[in-house]
UniProtKB/TrEMBL annotation:
Keyword Lipoprotein tagged: no
Protein name: DUF5931 domain-containing protein
Protein keywords: Kinase, Membrane, Transferase, Transmembrane, Transmembrane helix, Two-component regulatory system
InterPro entries, sorted: DUF5931, HATPase_C_sf, HATPase_dom, Sensor_HK_TwoCompSys
UniProt entry tagged with the keyword Kinase: yes
Domain Histidine kinase/HSP90-like ATPase as annotated: residue spans: 282-374
Annotated ranges, domain DUF5931: 1-176
PANTHER family: NITRATE/NITRITE SENSOR PROTEIN NARX-RELATED, OXYGEN SENSOR HISTIDINE KINASE NREB
Family matches, as SUPFAM superfamilies: ATPase domain of HSP90 chaperone/DNA topoisomerase II/histidine kinase (SSF55874)
Amino acid sequence: MGLEVALWRAVAVYRWLSLGYAALLIAMGFGEYAHPLGGWAVLAVMTVWTAYATYAFADPRKRGRSLLAADMAVAVGCLLATAWVQTPGDISSGSPTLPSSWVAAVVLSWAVECGKRSGAAAALLLGTANVLVHVLAGTPGSAGSVTFNGIVLLLMAGLVVGHVVKLALDAEARLARAVELEAATRERERLARRIHDSVLQVLAMLQRRGGELGGEAAELGRLAGEQEAALRALIGAERDPAAPDEVDLRSLLNGHASPKVTVAAPATPVRLPGHIAREVGAAVAAALDNVRRHCSADTRTWVLLEDDGAGEVVVSVRDDGPGMPRGRLDEAAADGRLGVAQSIRGRIRDLGGTVSIVTAPGEGTEIEMTVPAPPPPV
């Protein structure tokens, strides 16, 4: 049973208990009413509405502004009927109204459904109706401390209950989120153990045996080592539960680490919106792919991630390969080879960033990508 269901059941229990108290007061004052049958008629209305409200408020599809408004209308009507049923002397002496404390259930319903402000508004409406009872009975001066105290109690009930309900619902939501996170963490740990016991061991064995055999097997071993490092970084990456729409860019770049690729990143998370982080990661992957295709097998590459904390993130990819002659990138774009033009420059440009390329024959190549880092969501 959820917290919300329990709250509405508590309101329903209060409705029936307060209805019993109102029935007892009407039975005790029956002989002193100006219109005795009117008292029983009001009690009948309250009983029928209590039964319907118990059923209606228990159904989330029926709860809403219209049901709350009807609940308020019935309570105000029963209150105002007091001016007709009871004598002016009873009203001026401070006798309880016909519904008595039954009307507080309306304040509780408004507070549970809409919060403390709505609960306070409902209390003020009922307080106004209480004052109108004295006006309609012709004794406006008798609305003294008893009526005022009742209004204050209703107002406090609306504020306190609405505030406590909000705190309780927020706590329930946080608890549910924590349970989901714990379940996801346990599942991730289980998968990580299975991967470690199977895939990672096989890749490590391939790397070792490939290096021992040499030749083409050595190349296969090198690739297996790269995939092992990338997979270890992937299963070791952490996601911040407080920022489900953000990604730590370090986890994406660490997936490219290998014996030939060195990744250097800050010690603290570099969080970016998911789509930005993935585009930057894809641009880095395209730069590394260019190194693999156009450089020798022993070329080393360094990936450096910098977060200046001033709204920009800089990622540079530098290799010690042969470099490129002047005009090589323009020739490649003219020939339809758009790896750098689209996969790198196009992606970063779409993110509102810039790309600078520094290269020369025999001096390697360095690609520096700068992207704006939006402030974290509040």
